[in-house]
Amino acid sequence: MLKRRPEFYWKLTKKVTWWHRRTIFITTIASVLTFMILELTGVIWHNDWFAADYEVKGLDISHHQGTIDWKTVQEKNEFAFIYMKATEGHDFIDLRFKTNWEEAQSQGFRVGAYHFFSMRSPGKVQANNFIQTVPVKLEALPPIIDIEIHLKHDPEKVRQELQNLADELEKRYKERPIFYVTYDTYEQYIKGYFKDYDLWIRDIFKHPADGKY
Fold it and tell me: Which keywords does this chain's UniProt record carry (predicted)?
């Protein structure tokens, strides 16, 4: 009777284990890359999963989305409101704002506009850019100030210009603006200040911690 040495089984097991681990590693990498490609091309979008439990959903858009077929968006019956970029700094106006503003309303959406804040010009001058661009509409959502600036600025100066901008917008639209912030800009410029303002925390991966902001 032929007897095989124990070393043979050990070597075979080691080889199979190594091959198994290699297969798992390659499969995992391939799955991750496939998911990334599908998300980047818009076939899937993880935020759709996170938003599934919310009864009221909306869209955040700008000229980067190109021409939008608002009738098709309305027919999907998924979204109740639209926030759209209107202005940035003291002189930039989103090329699609006027069209998006009018066409979204024509399809029954409640609309709101946002301003991309900059430290290259005074807050009051930026407010004037927004006010000249965005009509006063009673049914519109409150204005939003998008705060995604670099973290190198003097916090006191940033807060002063933000306050000037917010005051002018509130005076014009009779509603206090909402601050749209990242975790970093919140910590650097907003935390401990502007306590009477509502915040929109940007997080595309999870729900911001309740009670922390």
Answer: Glycosidase, Hydrolase, Membrane, Transmembrane, Transmembrane helix
